Input
Amino acid sequence: MNISALNTRIVFEKLTVTTDEYGNHGTKAEEYYSCYATVSGTGTEETAAGTTNPRETADFTVRWCAALQAVESDHFRIAAGGHLYNILYVNPMGNRHRSLKFHCDRVKR
Output
């Protein structure tokens, strides 16, 4: 792993479901962990129902740490560069506890 390539600050946000006084459910994001990562992104297009939809994905590679071992794709998201990314899956990169790769989809707002 090239340490000098870890040049982008990212924040892992933990998602929790909350309910208000009327029983409406909502999602609340709290900052969980912040670190530097290597970002490699790709943009693709999908055709569905006769329309072309752009899809922007990104891979975030970080150094392994115990705090990131608990990160799951269902309960966390990544904030980087003013954009939000939903985690699709986590790649432990050979289970050697050296690095983790998070494959993500950019959230459209």
